[in-house]
C-alpha cells in the first residue's frame, strides 16, 4: 500500500480538530472545510496534468509528443513477440532437435502498460465521438 500524504495529513488534522473543538457542529464544519481544501488541491493537480498533456501533444518535438506512440509501438511489438513469435521460435527450435526456449517477456508487466494505454485510447475515442475537444 502506497503512502498517501494528503490522507495522512487530513487524518491528523481531523484528530486534532476532535480534541480542539469539542462542539460537534463546529468540528463537522471544520472537517467539511478541510475536505473542500483537499478536493480543491486534487482538482488543481488534475488541471495541471491536463495542461501538461495538452502542451506535450501540441509539441513538434518527437521527444515530447512522440513518447506515447513510442510506448504504444513497444507494447504492440512486445505483445506480438510474446503471443506469436516466441511460441513459433520455440516450436522451430524443437523441430531442429534443440531444447532452446526463446526469452520470455513478463506478461504481467506488459499487460499493465498495455491496458492502461488502451483505456486512455478508449477515453479519447469517446471524447472524439462526443465532439469534446475535437480540434486536437
Count the E strands. 0
Give the count of helical stretches: 5
Assembly context of the chains: single chain
What proportion of the residues is helical, as a percent range?
over 70%
Give the amount of beta strand, in percent: under 5%
Sequence stretches where pLDDT stays below 50 over 5 or more residues = none
Mean pLDDT: 76
Global morphology: elongated
- How do the helices and strands follow one another from N- to C-terminus? HHHHH
Major beta sheet, specifics?
A: none
Q: What do you see in this structure?
A:
The chain has 136 residues and is an all-alpha fold. The protein has five helices and no strands. It has helices at 5-20, 24-58, 62-65, 67-95, 107-130. Helix 4 (67-95) packs across helix 5. The two termini are 37 Å apart.
Question: Helices, strands, pairings?
Answer:
Elements: H1 5-20, H2 24-58, H3 62-65, H4 67-95, H5 107-130
Amino acid at each position: 500500500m502506497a503512502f498517501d500524504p494528503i490522507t495522512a495529513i487530513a487524518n491528523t488534522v481531523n484528530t486534532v480538530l476532535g480534541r480542539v473543538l469539542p462542539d460537534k457542529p463546529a468540528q463537522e464544519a471544520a472537517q467539511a472545510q478541510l475536505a473542500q481544501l483537499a478536493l480543491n488541491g486534487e482538482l488543481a493537480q488534475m488541471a495541471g496534468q491536463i495542461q501538461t498533456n495538452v502542451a506535450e501533444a501540441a509539441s513538434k518535438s518527437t521527444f515530447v509528443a512522440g513518447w506515447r506512440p513510442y510506448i504504444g509501438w513497444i507494447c504492440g511489438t512486445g505483445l506480438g513477440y510474446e503471443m506469436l513469435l516466441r511460441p513459433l521460435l520455440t516450436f522451430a527450435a524443437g523441430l531442429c532437435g534443440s531444447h532452446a526456449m526463446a526469452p520470455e517477456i513478463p506478461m504481467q508487466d506488459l499487460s499493465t502498460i498495455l491496458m492502461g494505454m488502451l483505456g486512455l485510447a478508449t477515453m479519447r475515442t469517446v471524447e472524439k465521438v462526443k465532439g469534446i475537444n475535437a480540434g486536437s
